């Protein structure tokens, strides 16, 4: 896919913000837990390799990804640190997991047996696994005591599996309502009793658990959202320390025109000018991850909030300007401008009724990432 290097639309990532967000979490930890930076989905759209570099400098001791390809990307980039794959690895690729010294989630007895079936013929060493307990997310992992005992039994018989970790994932650690969290915590406490005491890593903490629940029973924190400066609760809970959104999305006006009153704009003619209006065209559209739901949302032009008028097209959209700005005028789509005005991912998420995580995640490959304040 062609990346839009020659177009003014960019994702600008402030490395110092990521660094500071991790340092702030380190200060907040009370039990010496390690931080694994979660860089799945290309680092939530911020660029996995660069985020991993910055996180390492800030003191992250390992990384979490969701799929094997993401782990291999980090290895190819030269990272020697531990990498935990949180999603389900296809048992056919167990050779690569072992060879690249990766750790992966073990989600069921069935999965372990399938891995055994695919075990490489040559001498490869052990497979490091983190057994996943499904305490109430309903996504991956063992649910019953019986399943846990079967898995332990299996592991005893098959020493080529190295039980490196035991973990679970909380679905609602980011809310003032802690009732479901309590259910999950209770179940995980029971699971811990069933497993051996000497497992190196026991972990439950995503950002929310790290921020608001003292990384409950975790000697490893899987830090995602808060590292990127995204509040996992949206607006519900205040973060105990300040975090800063690391990414801004910027562009420039590519055409400006005065459109007479009563004229239609964009596909479907959903907008008619109510007076003679200054209209600017921006080179960003839904193919860039700037979805059509943003019709009517605002962008920052010269510190002024300007509405997106008419439909967002595949590659472009139009904004109503207060005056005839010159072509080339800088526009902030998300993030802050030099004057301190800002439109956060949170605000954007609320507008399109999603969560802040999703906005940077869906930015497409066509939008090049530019790194500033590189903490060298
Ligand atoms: C994505 C993910 C995380 C990171 O969650 P954040 O809310 O972004 O901190 C942690 N653990 C698992 C299992 C995940 O899938």
UniProtKB/TrEMBL annotation:
Residues holding substrate: 139, 314
Keyword flag Secreted: no
UniProt keyword annotations, A-Z: Isomerase, Pyridoxal phosphate
Active site: 40 (proton acceptor), 267 (proton acceptor)
InterPro entries for the chain: Ala_racemase, Ala_racemase/Decarboxylase_C, Ala_racemase_C, Ala_racemase_N, Ala_racemase_pyridoxalP-BS, PLP-binding_barrel
Cofactor dependence: pyridoxal 5'-phosphate
Signal peptide: none
Top class in the EC scheme: isomerase
EC number: 5.1.1.1
PROSITE patterns per UniProt: ALANINE_RACEMASE (PS00395)
Keyword Methyltransferase: no
Molecular function terms, GO-annotated: alanine racemase activity
Pathway(s) of this molecule: Amino-acid biosynthesis; D-alanine biosynthesis; D-alanine from L-alanine: step 1/1
Domain Alanine racemase C-terminal: 246-372
Record-stated family: Belongs to the alanine racemase family.
Functional description taken from the UniProt entry: Catalyzes the interconversion of L-alanine and D-alanine. May also act on other amino acids.
The name this protein goes by in its record: Alanine racemase
Source organism: Vagococcus proximus
Lineage, broadest ranks: Bacteria, Bacillati, Bacillota, Bacilli, Lactobacillales
């Amino acid at each position: 896919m062609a990346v839009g290097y020659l177009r003014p639309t960019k994702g600008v990532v402030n490395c110092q913000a990521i660094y500071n967000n991790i340092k702030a979490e380190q200060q907040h930890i009370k039990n010496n837990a390690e931080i694994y930076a979660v860089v799945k989905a290309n680092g939530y759209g911020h660029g996995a390799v660069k985020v991993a570099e910055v996180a390492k400098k800030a003191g992250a001791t390992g990384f979490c990804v969701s799929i094997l390809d993401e782990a291999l990307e980090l290895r190819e980039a030269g990272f020697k640190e531990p990498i935990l794959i949180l999603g389900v690895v296809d048992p056919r690729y167990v050779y690569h997991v072992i060879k690249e010294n990766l750790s992966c989630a073990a989600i069921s007895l069935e999965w372990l047996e399938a891995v055994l079936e695919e075990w490489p013929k040559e001498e490869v060493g052990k497979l490091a696994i983190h057994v996943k307990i499904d305490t109430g997310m309903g996504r991956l992992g063992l649910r019953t005591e019986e399943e846990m005992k079967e898995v332990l039994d299996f592991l005893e018989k098959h020493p080529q599996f190295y039980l490196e970790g035991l973990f679970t994932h909380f679905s609602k650690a980011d809310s003032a309502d802690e009732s479901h969290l309590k259910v999950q915590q209770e179940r995980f406490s029971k699971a811990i009793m069933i497993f051996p005491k000497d497992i190196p890593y026991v972990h439950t903490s995503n950002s929310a658990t790290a921020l608001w629940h003292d990384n409950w029973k975790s000697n490893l924190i899987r830090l995602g959202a808060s590292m990127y400066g995204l509040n996992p609760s949206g607006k519900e809970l205040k973060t105990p320390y300040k975090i800063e959104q690391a990414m801004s999305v910027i562009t420039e006006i590519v055409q400006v025109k005065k459109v007479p009153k009563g004229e239609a704009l964009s596909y479907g003619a959903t907008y008619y000018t109510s007076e003679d209006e200054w209209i600017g065209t921006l080179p960003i559209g839904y193919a860039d991850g700037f979805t059509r739901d943003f019709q009517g949302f605002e962008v920052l032009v010269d510190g002024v909030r300007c509405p997106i008028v008419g439909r967002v097209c595949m590659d472009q959209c139009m904004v109503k300007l207060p005056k005839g700005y010159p072509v080339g005028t800088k526009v902030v789509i998300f993030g802050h401008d030099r004057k301190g005005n800002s439109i956060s991912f949170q605000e954007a998420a609320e507008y399109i009724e999603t969560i802040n995580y999703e906005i940077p995640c869906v930015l497409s490959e066509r939008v090049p990432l530019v790194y500033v304040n590189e903490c060298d």
